Amino acid sequence: MGDIIKLLPDHVANQIAAGEVVQRPASVVKELLENAIDAGSKAIKLIVKNGGKTLIHVVDDGLGMSETDARLSFERHATSKITKAEDLFKLSTKGFRGEALASIAAIAHVEMQTKLADAEVGTHLKIEGSKLIFQEVGAVPKGTSMAVKNLFFNIPARRSFLKSDTVELRHITDEFHRVALAHPQIGFHYYVNGGELFGLPISNLRQRIVHIFGSKANQKLVPVAEDTQVVKISGFINKPAFAKKSRGEQFFFVNNRFIKSPYLHHAVVSAFEGLVKPNSHPGYFLYLDVDPASIDINIHPTKTEVKFDDEHTLYAILRSAVKHSLGQFHVAPPLDFEADPNLETPYAYKNKEAEFPKVTVDAGFNPFSESKSKSAGVATKSYQRAGKPNSGEQSWESLYVGLESKMGKDEGFSSIQFESDTITGSIFDGQSEAIESTAKTFQLRRKYIVTTIKSGMVVIDQSRAHQRVLYEKFLRNSTIKQAVSQQLLFPLSLSFSKADVTVLVEIKETLNAVGFVFDTMAEESVSVSGVPLLVTESEVGMVLDQLIADCQQEVTGENFSQTDILSKTLAKTLAVKTGEVLESASQLALVNDLFACKEPLVSPFHKPVYVTITESEIDKKFI
Asked: What is the domain extent for residue 59?
């Protein structure tokens, strides 16, 4: 048998590497922005069209490259960041693998313009599918301009796996946020389809967070600062009152590099224990500065996973720093047993003596006096004004005159009805048949509804059943677009970040079909004048927050629509929760509505709604 192992051609090797480096347009944005930062730029522009599928253009004012470096940068494993293997253990730059530009050039049309600061002319070159089309000298501005067009043009299978423009743009925006938050000392401009979405000037960290997430974010932030020999921690955490249902505003940065660390995330969440509601997630923007030799960032192609030498110590320091900030700024309720209560007395009451309460008794008050006025309230007022009893007093026995004439002697109190407790059942006096005919359902543990059927009984999860009922109702209303809207007396103004408002603008038509009415949608605020009938005014903000979070997390596919997400979110938010008490009428109505649904077996999230227990199964328990 002959030799079968061969070296792969460069263009094939580049496409294989591109599968690791470039997963979607957001991956290209990440690599190009990091290269611009490593070049020492002070102003960076990001231009995106059609979710990055048509164009991703990054322009910076950094160092630039010479003619030789410009061409060599597209070769595999070509980098200026490291020179020997030891450099991998003390990295201080973003990119170092030397595969980003080669991988991007293998699957797209790339056009580069670059010039050194002290050079008179620069370099202009084009590469398509790893093939150099042309390279020439030209008059270009200082810095580097990198345009990536027609991503995956030569790999149709990869391009078909890309999601819609809206979803891909959302991923690009997330990458932009991560890079912009890590470098507030750099100005960023983000343009989408010809319009500017973000214009971030050079600022400090707090200002950068406010510019990205809206002016309302300023009142949420609590500073965190801790300096030890192991790590230096800085940044901000959100107040517990602003915890959200989603994990959108959670950022970890190690040496100005965004990372994902479930272990460190658990340290922050444990510091918030007891301060946030269940299933709510606190927001944080935490920056960790550690010795580059104590971490390994070369364990994943996207470099978002980092391995620390001493994770346990880092966990304890981070948890303590967050707890200290919550207590220092009086976010957590303090317990001070040594506080002197005298210090809490205002200075104006320093020499003031205590006043004893005075009790006044009206000796002439007669509860059986009869006023000439028919109104008791008027009689009381006239009595208080005169200060003496009203004229026309009569005996209290007159209250019962004529009572016997209205009631027969034999009737007595037989017609009077007494309020008593509801009879729940009896196994001794033979009343079971009557009770079964009147009470058809009962609530168990404030969680389940139990009802009888011919073959046995049914145990229904009240929360999931209500979710199914509401889901089909909202889905039906949004489909036929005949939802009833409840108009608010005063329009409700809500504050959101620019990214959240963008999501609301995208799904505005679907929200209108369900019953929401919006007056205005500005950059950071939304005015709501109408809501669906089942949504109260106090729940509007919570419903929209949950809706935005679900839309950002879901991935659009063939069997997926905005209407489906909206209906699921509204059903989950407005459904009856476990622990709520339901009256008998409400229980019966919920059971009837459930079995009138098309799919009563499962909830909108594909979980069982009820179980059936037959009479034979019950009999087996007594064998």
From this structure: 10-200
